[in-house]
Specification:
Blueprint: E1 2-8, H1 14-22, E2 28-34, E3 39-46, H2 48-65, E4 81-88, H3 94-112, E5 116-122, E6 125-127, H4 129-135, E7 156-160, E8 165-172, H5 176-186, E9 191-198, E10 201-208, H6 216-224, E11 232-239, H7 244-248, H8 266-270
Parallel strand pairs: 4-7, 5-7
Antiparallel strand pairs: 1-3, 1-4, 2-3, 5-6, 8-10, 8-11, 9-10
Length: about 270
């Protein structure tokens, strides 16, 4: 089984989001939408054949319905279909996930004339998603498609990666400057983090890229140790799904505090 986690630059128009999700067919296991980010994360899981068909349906509908020129949100983005990673749920199948990534890349660039940037293994090099975001159209040309972004659709980053956990902490009575400092303090080879202003609160947004080494509880405690006075963690939030093994590694008594449950696992959505 393979996972494809499609990040789309729309999180407010529920009718459009439903229409996009319908095209994901039986592969759709979860959708997480946020109005401040104005972004949705669709988690698709299936065998290769039906997964690729549903990925094409979701991407095509997104490109047809969304327009980057009218988009506003706090999350960095350079495309209406912004990030599309393929993930093998079995490590031995990562080569096939890479083949699926490349197949979708050629399809997007030829069918829609949208620039495509690859991340993960690319020839003899390895690129991270942050590297692509920093370098795209500056020191890094698209791997496929037009040399410049399209005004309506922008560009897309297509990747192959291991399982990661996207997880956020919402903070109250914390300034954005403080939140940025906290996000920087927890950043490491295992954790990518950013801070955003979210109305009257701030959010420390994390990608736990080695969740078996650094899980949600460890990050929660690191952030808590830096808060003082009236500053507090309002709530924690999982974006998408996580492996049951990562959930089981967190103390069960803390699941609610960490925004986790049995229903937030990949395995629960496949049963």
């Amino acid at each position: 089984m393979f996972e494809c986690v499609i990040n789309v630059s729309e999180g407010r128009d529920l009718d459009v989001l439903e229409a996009i999700g319908e095209r994901a067919g039986e592969s759709l296991r979860d959708r997480h939408s946020d109005t401040f980010h104005n972004r949705s994360v669709y988690t698709l899981i299936n065998a290769p054949g039906p997964l690729l068909e549903d990925v094409r349906g979701l991407i095509a509908t997104s490109l047809e319905r969304l327009d980057l020129r009218t988009h506003q949100g706090v999350h960095p983005r350079f495309g209406v279909v912004d990030v599309v990673p393929f993930v093998s749920l079995e490590r031995a199948e990562r080569a096939l996930a890479l083949t699926m990534r490349d197949s979708i890349g050629h399809w997007i660039s030829t069918s829609f004339e949208v620039p495509v940037f690859y991340y993960g293994p690319v020839g003899d090099e390895f690129r991270t998603l942050p590297q692509v975001r920093r370098r795209a159209f500056r020191t890094l040309a698209p791997d496929l498609g037009p040399r410049e972004p399209t005004a309506r659709s922008g560009a897309v980053a297509l990747g192959e990666r291991p399982v990661l956990v996207a997880w956020n902490l919402w903070l109250s009575d914390v300034s954005l400057e403080r939140a940025r400092a906290i996000a920087g303090s927890i950043r490491s080879d295992a954790v990518r983090s950013l801070a955003f202003a979210m109305g009257e609160q701030v959010q420390v947004s994390c990608n736990l890229i080695a969740p078996e080494l650094v899980g949600p509880a460890a990050i929660y405690d690191q952030v808590t140790s830096q808060l003082s006075g009236v500053e507090r963690i309002e709530r924690a939030e999982l974006v998408g799904l996580m492996p049951a093994s990562v959930l089981d590694a967190q103390e069960r008594a803390r699941w609610d505090q960490l925004g986790l449950s049995d229903q937030t696992t990949i395995e629960s959505r496949l049963s």
